[in-house]
Amino acid sequence: MSIRDLSKDELELYSHKDLTDMLLREYGTMNTADLFKKITTLLGLPKSVYENKIGDYYTTLTTDKRFIMLEDGKWDLRENHTSDKVVVINDNEEEEEEEEESLESKDENDEDEDFDASRSDDEFDDSSDEDLKDLVIIDEDELELEE
Q: Which of 7, 34, 89, 107 lies deepest, with the highest CB count within 10 Å?
């Protein structure tokens, strides 16, 4: 179904993200300004909406995993692009290396101050991101796609 075949009432039922998806499927890559201009024109919105909401629209595109920004500043559907690189991580080897490194550093630092169990957690300055290295942040849109 072409986006041009939809009435204004039908178009208003779709979100800006869904309209962007349809536009990219129909017309191919486009920049942010052209995409949002087409959407506001299709919906019959005033120019003030375009001027006031284009920043929010850009943010929406950057957070939606369906879209990808290309090197030339144009948007396209992520499904049209594949990665040539595959990275395989063996967690067991990584953990073994970390354990070996920590044992070696402990041997070297035996002369350093000993652990004081009486100190509270607030007194420790643990600015290390080590605990957060496996943290994955998923936005709501990505969760909806998985369901």
A: 34
